[in-house]
TrEMBL record:
GO MF annotations, alphabetized: copper ion binding; oxidoreductase activity
The organism of origin for this protein: Populus deltoides
Name of the protein described by the UniProt record: Laccase
GO cellular component: extracellular region
Main location (coarse class): secreted
Family note: Belongs to the multicopper oxidase family.
Keywords: Copper, Glycoprotein, Metal-binding, Oxidoreductase, Repeat, Secreted, Signal
Lineage: Eukaryota, Viridiplantae, Streptophyta, Embryophyta, Tracheophyta
Length: 340
């Protein structure tokens, strides 16, 4: 849950037919790259010489940080595979070729191959144009020698979106606090753009490394057409952050390396057949753009799906307001709902 993975089956081609429960235009590949929170549906044809073939996965590590470099395996065995009669053991399995641990080109090539099977209804007129910087930070510690303060110079690792490091509420849930009108649990002033504009993938001043800890939500009207550009930053290190949105799927319309250019990059967006997902990673030191319609009322967490990054605050939440039509409002709790 803290690492993206390359996966392959020795000597077998995988045909990708769906991701995150949305059909894709089928395409053949020798490997897949999958992140925490993602699903990938693949078809495999057992058309090789009967034998034993390793299924294997190891980390795709996009950050300059320690990681588990072991490989996990299982064996695909043909029923008619020959055995070694002399030793009573199966024949030696064949091992697959996996991309290297830091092979970003292969990871991006796989992700870029995903398309919807036909033209999709991508929002063209945008109501909410959001630009979210995602990445790490460091928080000063009152006790630098404590177990949680293992960052440089006794600091504590943190993460944020638009310099806000999300704090999960402890007194009440966000939904209960909103619908019961309980104050002091959250605010609705999450910034739509970074509070300070800077060279996001360059040499960032240390004065911009410390985020603000808060529980901030961003309010959306029901039916709003939303575009979010996730921009990775080089604070501490660049990394591919798999961003997951609860309650909605979205079209992945574009991505690239470096800083997003709002004047030139949208011209390269795929607004015809982009894939629909609920979790997407930004290229390390780059950006990814998504579009969706906020048609599911309620409060929906959006976060990096690497577990440690969520704990460090790489999250925020959308408050999608009720609509006026049928099935466009959050249902109230039943009268006999047991109280805590």
């Amino acid at each position: 849950m803290n690492q993206e993975l390359f996966f392959a089956v020795a000597n077998h081609i995988l045909t990708v037919v769906a991701v995150d429960a949305a059909c894709t235009m089928p395409f053949a590949t020798s490997f897949i790259m999958i992140a925490p929170g993602q699903t990938t549906d693949v078809l495999l044809t057992a058309d090789q010489t009967p034998g034993h073939y390793y299924m294997a996965a190891h980390a795709y590590n996009s950050a300059n940080a320690p990681f588990d470099n072991t490989t996990t395996t299982a064996i695909l065995e043909y029923k008619s595979a020959p055995c070694n009669a002399n030793k009573g053991k199966s024949s030696t399995p064949i091992f697959p070729q996996l991309p290297g641990f830091n092979d970003t080109n292969s990871a991006i090539a796989f992700t870029s191959s995903l398309r919807s099977p036909s033209k999709v209804n991508v929002p063209l007129q945008i109501d909410e144009n959001l630009f979210f910087t995602v990445g790490f930070g460091l928080i000063n510690c009152t006790n630098p020698n404590s177990p949680r303060c293992q960052g440089p110079n006794g600091t504590r690792f943190a993460a944020s979106i638009n310099n806000v490091s999300f704090v999960l509420p402890t007194r009440n849930s966000l939904m209960q606090a909103y619908y019961q009108g309980q104050p002091g649990v959250f605010t609705t002033d999450f910034p739509p753009v970074p509070p300070v504009k800077f060279d996001y993938t360059g040499n960032v001043s240390r004065g911009l490394w410390q985020p603000v800890k808060a529980t901030k939500l961003y309010k959306l009207k029901f039916g709003a057409k939303v575009q979010i550009v996730f921009q990775d930053t080089s604070i501490v290190t660049v990394e591919d952050h798999p961003m997951h949105l609860h309650g909605h799927s979205f079209a992945v319309v574009g991505s690239g390396f470096g800083n997003f250019n709002p004047q030139t990059d949208p011209a390269k967006f795929n607004l015809i057949d982009p894939p629909y997902r609920n979790t997407i990673g930004n290229p390390p030191g780059g950006w990814v753009a998504i579009r969706f319609v906020a048609d599911n009322p309620g409060i929906w967490l959006m976060h990096c799906h690497l577990d440690s990054h969520l704990n460090w605050g790489l999250a925020m939440a959308f408050l999608v307001e009720n609509g006026v039509g049928n099935l466009q409002s959050v249902q109230p709790p039943p009268l006999d709902l047991p109280r805590c």
